[in-house]
Amino acid sequence: MPPDAARRSDRSRRAILVAALELVEALGYSRLTIEAVAARAGVGKQTIYRWWSSKGPLLFEAFVELGPVERDPRPSGDLATDLRLELRATVEELNERRFDQVCRVLVHEARTDLVTLLLTPRRVRLEERLRAGQRAGEVRLDVDVAAAADLLLGPVHQRWLLRTAPLSGEHADAVVDLVLRALRG
């Protein structure tokens, strides 16, 4: 039976979402149970199952609603600086413990590229800044802006997802430097 929005208590719903995020951060996904979420939120587990079929969809909604606050650095007017700010903000978000725990769970649970889905606004801003760089003569006009955004975000996502090396602002800066050399070529 689909959830009845009229029966939802916003206070209970929010308590459930907060409890789910707190518990997955404290316990990890494998030890997280609907019973534990219900107890922490002060609701019956049937309330949770009425709205979410399992802990995966519950965590996804909790993350989308209560996840990290997206940082949107103001453009400085300098392409290299703007790209560094965007990639450093991405690194900060990926390094947040709650983001890290929940997003990895969601990628595993959904078996889709939720990281890319959740970071789409950042990718859009990178493309916008690269296009502005083209207009300002800082990036060659023949550069495929979408591919350039992939070049910027790909190494950051790979390092975060596979944990091949530490994810840091210095890494983000090195990626920007390498990509800009190719784009200005």
From TrEMBL:
Domain (HTH tetR-type) ranges: 10-70
Residue ranges of DNA binding: 33-52
A Pfam family annotated for this UniProt entry: TetR_N
UniProt entry keywords in alphabetical sequence: DNA-binding, Transcription, Transcription regulation
Annotated SUPFAM superfamilies: Homeodomain-like (SSF46689), Tetracyclin repressor-like, C-terminal domain (SSF48498)
Protein name: TetR/AcrR family transcriptional regulator
Source species of the chain: Saccharothrix lopnurensis
